[in-house]
Design brief:
Organism: Parasutterella secunda
Structural class: mainly alpha
Catalytic activity: (2S)-2-[5-amino-1-(5-phospho-beta-D-ribosyl)imidazole-4-carboxamido]succinate = 5-amino-1-(5-phospho-beta-D-ribosyl)imidazole-4-carboxamide + fumarate; N(6)-(1,2-dicarboxyethyl)-AMP = fumarate + AMP
Shape: elongated
CATH topology of the largest domain: Fumarase C, Chain A, domain 2
EC number: 4.3.2.2
GO molecular function: lyase activity
Distance between the termini: 52 Å
Protein name: Adenylosuccinate lyase
Radius of gyration: 31 Å
Order of helices and strands: HHHHHHHEEHEHHEHEHHHEHHHHHH
Strand content: 5-15%
């Protein structure tokens, strides 16, 4: 069967292909191969500048040609490497052979070609490539999260002064404002984004088991650790890990994926809350011409974007959690279980992006129904019990909590009920007046200020 968006096994390459398109240039097989070529090329150029007796310093032309292999890398280039892999059954060795083929016509580069992959194990190339991919992927992901965060902040400010009834345990509780609820999520997401950005992305280039064995037997006089560190940090823009086995142990990946899971969980929590508020009528959704909510119930406008976001972020978190728990585990100096798992980095990021896209669409459709919010609040005068009993405590009225509990718990309370109770309290006139003027809509504490500070 011909491969297309309609025959793709994964919805990331089918139904959601357009939403994940930007990730193909970062996490696809071709992108992975391109990153490997980049690492091999920079390693060779660095070796040529290291004053090794058997390797001449490459000319500017030679360096430009090698870097051109990266800049001009195409899907066809990747296919050529995959064709070599059919014989080698080893993808990194196929990259090495491909580079040697590409330079074979050039006398200078052909002489240097045996120093391609010099002293390296496959993981020296792979771990740095994964680090480069994750560094770029993180930038894309954080940019998406920052866009969502900006929308949350805008909603916090727009609706900062709109009072609403809280519900703790699903029951009526002290009022807040619509904007303050958006501000809460905005601040949580802000911290989560900072956690993602704070993760240091590591890489190693230290040979078969992390000790520079091959390097030092060939050139014992050279400081290979300093050399490798310079390549990783100055040429590739990563942070050097000094102590590893054959693989970079992936602890930073676990830290990064856990941080992304935290951000996704915050958004998943938001999805569920907004879903509930739409159900209560607090928000309406903008209609889209021609869109159908139900195949049998014409009136329905379902919160499908928030449902899709919740579902896809759940898949993303399942994958990211597995990656975080599995990747730091390797038998002895290495096993191959990380290799096949790491091929799913793009899948995990892909489901993040599908979830973020759905949430973004949903947020763009929301319209606040202030009348419904106000009606809900006006039917919950019992929430003033907290305010009244707290003032009673201040002025030493006996058993304030118990009195308000007897008055309000499980009962329908009206403004008249509240006013009658307050009028009989033995408290200063000023305090009594303040309580008499209080309504559920004005009992919001510092909610407006807190919302505007987000």
């Amino acid at each position: 069967m011909e491969l297309s968006a309609l025959t793709a096994l994964s919805p990331l390459d089918g139904r959601y292909a357009r939403q994940t398109e930007s990730l193909r240039g970062i996490f696809s097989e071709s992108a992975f191969m391109r990153a490997r070529v980049r690492v091999e090329v920079e390693w060779l150029i660095a070796l040529s500048e290291a004053q090794l007796p058997e390797l001449d310093h490459l000319s500017d032309h030679g360096k430009a040609y090698l870097r051109g292999l990266v800049e001009n890398f195409t899907v066809q280039s990747c296919q050529e490497i995959k064709d070599i892999e059919k014989t080698t059954n080893h993808d990194v060795k196929a990259v090495e052979y491909w580079i040697k083929e590409q330079v074979s016509h050039d006398e200078e580069l052909a002489r240097a070609s045996e120093f391609v992959h010099f002293g390296c194990t496959s993981e020296d190339i792979n771990n740095t490539s994964h680090a480069l991919m994750l560094s770029e992927g993180r930038q894309e992901l954080v940019a998406f999260l920052r866009s969502i965060h900006q929308t949350l902040v805008e909603n916090a400010h727009r609706w900062a002064e709109v009072p609403m009834l809280s519900r703790t345990h699903g029951q009526t509780a002290s009022p807040t404002t619509i904007g303050k609820e958006w501000a809460n999520v905005a601040m949580r997401l802000k911290r989560a984004i900072e956690s993602i950005e704070s993760v240091t992305i590591l890489a190693k280039m230290n040979g078969a088991v992390g000790n520079y064995n091959a390097h030092t037997i060939a050139y014992p006089e050279k400081d290979w650790e300093a050399f490798a560190k310079k390549v990783v940090e100055e040429r590739l823009g990563l942070t050097f890990n000094t102590h590893t086995i054959q693989i970079e142990p992936h602890d930073y990946m676990a830290q990064l994926f856990d941080a992304i899971v935290r951000a996704n969980t915050i958004l998943l929590d938001l999805d569920r809350d907004i879903w509930g508020y739409i159900s209560m009528g607090f928000y309406k959704q903008k209609l889209k011409e021609g869109e159908v909510g139900s195949s049998t119930m014409p009136h329905k406008v379902n919160p499908i974007d928030f449902e899709n976001s919740e579902g896809n972020l759940g898949i993303a978190n399942a994958l990211l959690t597995h990656l975080a728990q599995k990747l730091p585990i390797s038998r002895w100096q290495r096993d191959l279980t990380d290799s096949t798992v790491l091929r799913n980095l793009g899948v995990a990021f892909g489901y993040c992006f599908v979830g973020y896209n759905a949430l973004t669409r949903g947020l763009g459709k929301l319209q606040l129904n202030e009348q419904r919010v106000a009606e809900d609040l006006d039917h919950a005068w019992e929430v003033l019990a907290e305010a009244i009993q707290t003032v009673m405590r201040r002025y030493g009225v006996p058993h304030p909590y118990e009195q308000l509990k007897a008055l309000t718990r499980g009962k329908g309370i009206t403004p008249e009920t509240i006013h009658e109770f307050v009028s009989q309290l033995d408290i200063p006139a000023e305090a009594k007046e303040r309580l008499m003027k209080l309504t559920p809509a004005t009992y919001i504490g510092k909610a407006v200020e807190l919302a505007k500070r987000a």
